[in-house]
Structure formats: structure tokens, C-alpha cells
Amino acid sequence: MGLSETLANYFDVHKHGSTVKAEILAGITTFLTMSYIVVVNPDIMTGIPGAKPGIIIDGYTPGQVESMLVVVTILAAAIATLTMAFYANRPFAQAPGLGLNAFFAFTVVGALGISWQTALAAVFVEGLLFIVLTAVGAREAIIKIFPHPVKMAVGTGIGLFLAIIGLQAMGIVVDDTATLVTLGSLASNPVAIVSVVGLFMTFVLYAADVPGSILLGIALTTVLGWAVTQLGLVGLDAGLVVAAGTTAVTLPVIGTFDLVVPGSGSVVTYNITPLAGSFISGFGNVEAFSFALIVFTFFFVDFFDTAGTLVGVGQVAGFLDDNGDLPDIDKPLMADAVGTTAGAALGTSTVTTYIESASGVEEGGRTGLTALVTAGLFLASLALVPLATAIPLYASHIALVVIGVVMLRNVVDIAWDDITHTIPAGMTILIMPFTYSIAYGIASGIISYPLVKLAAGEYDDISAGQWALAVAFFIYFVVRTSGMLQAQV
């Protein structure tokens, strides 16, 4: 029996209507669309004394700390995604979550003045809570009581969220003081020009049903950007790079891995032990109420971001049942919980399931083999980090726009002729991209559902659990937006 057949049998690839080739393409696509996190997470998490809050380690420069965080980010993503592959057998990839890492660095460590070790302790506690709640079925039970219109709207909301992230990275959508967002200077921005050309090439390939169309579009856009730069027509960023001057990281037990940086002739050795296990010291001198509020915030955002991502991407993959539920959702939820706990132990913020998994699903990924390929590429990037970051954002994020557009078709599953469905579904869809948060979109839908059902006199459609969720979300918004957290420090 060959390797391909062994993998197909282990992951039940054919049973899920996929092929080993499609799963591998899907895993590569997912990795390419989320590989930016290898550098973006360390950049956000690293503190600079007197200039930027985050992780600051005595005796180490910010560049050295950032290099440690590169390795920690890769390891956390690999551990979580491998758990997803082998335990859950789902095509979802995981890594330290954007937004949650910013909350960690700028709010908890910066605005609240909490030590980064204590912040890691809060993330670790959150992970343990998730493990316990998932083991007893509580997380799955909560997700099942999501109102049906909210479940059906999550996929479309995530689609818009993905699209705006991608359009922003491509320079097509930019910020504006008068209108908040506006069209970028396309004709004078080299990144936007190459991105637009690449985007429409990818749309053409996708519409023509070319196998691996999204991956091919990313590759062609990368080559196009490289070509115009080499010809001297315009200058484009070739991709993300790790902190300058860093070419090696020594890991305890694992060994030494070269992190190659173009133009660097030096070899500097770092060790992740200053980060790994540092959460333990964070339990000392903890103020109980403030610590509980921080854990609650991490818990809330991660819980509903993950729930929304699993349901939304599951909808694209055709995994959802007639009630809009993801069968055996407890397994990917457990993978998420394990990832968060392991990530905190290594030294990074909350690990969560990535919406970029939708790009791999659209390429045909249906099993844990997709996740295994993605995790393998993360581990491979330890040896040569630029392999993970050589794809520029404007190229990789084309996938987000294409998938975002495709995910809009999920809107037909909503009963728009029923106002008690239209309002919560519409709020879920709109709030996600406008607040840059899956969790906030879900929260707005869940809060509005019992209110409009009550107004319409349809009392029997509201369960006690839905009322409880609505109240819990209301309390969360009060805590999160009233300044209560700052007031307790």
C-alpha cells in the first residue's frame, strides 16, 4: 500500500468526497493565506521599552524577543493544527489569533499595566477552561442554541470580513477620515495595480474551474510582483521577513534551525526558554477581579470567534446538518482548546481557528489531511522562515477576496421574508466586517433575536438558553466598552 493510499484510508478522504491531491493543494493554499501570522504575531506581541507595549525580556533586544516569538508562533500553530488533523479530522488550521494578540499586548500589558507573564497565565487558564467545558459538552451545547438565522448568517458575515481584510492588504480599500473607508489610489499604487491584475486572473481561473485556481492565482501574482520589480518598473515589497540580523534559533531538545534573512552574514543564537513556561511566574501577585475580567475577555472573544469560524467554514464545506449545526463540533473545539493551552505554555497569546481555512476548503479540502499538510508546512518553515513569508500580503490576500465573494452565496439560506430572521441575520452580517470581529457580529445577532421575536409575539420560538446568551453578551459589551477593565487596575 502506497503513501497516498495510506493517507486516504487514514483520513477517510474518499468517504468525504475528496482526493489526496485536492487535500494537499488545499493544505498548501491554507498555509499560504495564513503564513503572514509567522511574522505579524511576533511583530504585535514584541514590546519595545518606552515605545511599544508587549513582551519585553530583560537582557534581550526586541529583535531577539521577536525571533523567539517567530519560533513560538510556528510551534503553537503546528501543535494546534496537528491536533485538528489527527483528533478532529477536519480541514481547519489554527494559529495565534489576530485581535486577541493585539488585546494581549496593547490592552492587557499596555493600557492595564499587567505583566506579560500574568497575561500569558490568563490565556493558559482560558485554555484549561475550554478543555473542561469541551470535555463535558458545554461548548457544543452553547453553540447549538445559537438562533438559526444567526447560524445561517455567519458564513456571509465571515465572507465580508475576509473580503475587507484582503482588499485592504491589496491597497484597494484604504482608510479615510471623512468616510472611514474609500477606494485607494489604484492607478498610482504599484501594489494595488498588481493586486487587481492578480485578483482578476484568479477570478478567471476560478470561474474556468481550473484545479488549484486560488493557489495558482497567488503564485502568478507573486511572480508578477517580482517581475515588475526586477524590470525596474516599480518597487514592491517581496514579502515579509523576520527580524533583521537573525539567522538561527536554538530550541531546547528540538535543536537548531536556520532562519535565513537575505543580506545577513551573521549567525546569532537564541533560545525560547525565556518564553516557554513563563506563564507560571505570572500567577504570582495576581489581583483576582482584574485577572478574572481579563480571562473572561480572552474567553469570550476566542469562544465565539472559533464558533463562528467553524460554523461559517463548515457551511462552505457542506458539513452542516439540517439544523445548521456542525456534527462532532466538540472535536475541533477540543483542538482549539489544546492549541490555546499549548500556545500559552510556549509563550504566545490565544490560539484560534483561522477563517483563512475557507481558502483551503474552497480548494477541495474536506479532511484532516488538509490540516496535516498545513501543519507540516508550518514546521518546515522553522528551517527556512522566509519560505513561510516569501509570499507578499497583496498576493496571499487575493485568496481572501475570492473566498469572501464565494461565501456571499450562503446568504440564500436565510429566510429574508421573515423579519424576525432578517434583523438578527442582517446584524450578524453587518457588524462582523464593520467592527473587525466575528464575535461581535454573532453577539449582535444573538442579542437582537429574542428582542424581535418578543416584539413579534413569537414567544415560543425563544429558548431560555437564547435569553441567557443575550444577557451574557449584553454584560460582555458593558464590561468591554465601559472602561471597567481599566478602572480595576
Describe the structure.
It comes from Haloferax mediterranei (strain ATCC 33500 / DSM 1411 / JCM 8866 / NBRC 14739 / NCIMB 2177 / R-4). It is found in: Cell membrane. Its main location: membrane. One of its GO terms (cellular component) is plasma membrane. This is NCS2 family permease. This protein has 489 residues and is mainly alpha-helical. It has one domain (3-487). 61% of the residues lie in helices and 4% in strands. The chain has a two-stranded antiparallel sheet. A hairpin with a 3-residue loop joins strand 2 and strand 3. Helix 4 packs antiparallel against helix 12 (330-346). The protein is globular. The chain starts with a helix and ends with a helix. 55% of the residues are buried. The model is unreliable at 237-270 (pLDDT under 50).
Classification by helices and strands: mainly alpha
Give the H and E element order: HHHHEHHHHEEHHEEHHEHHHHHHHHH
Termini separation comes to 62 Å
Q: Outline the low-pLDDT stretches.
A: 237-270
Query: How large is the share of residues in beta strands?
Result: under 5%
Overall pLDDT? 84
Q: Estimate the global geometry from the Cα principal axes.
A: globular
Spatial strand arrangement across the major sheet? 1-6
Question: So how many helices?
Answer: 21
In percent, how helical is the residue content? 55-70%
* Number of strand elements: 6
The gyration radius over C-alpha positions equals: 22 Å
Biggest sheet statistics: 2 strands, antiparallel
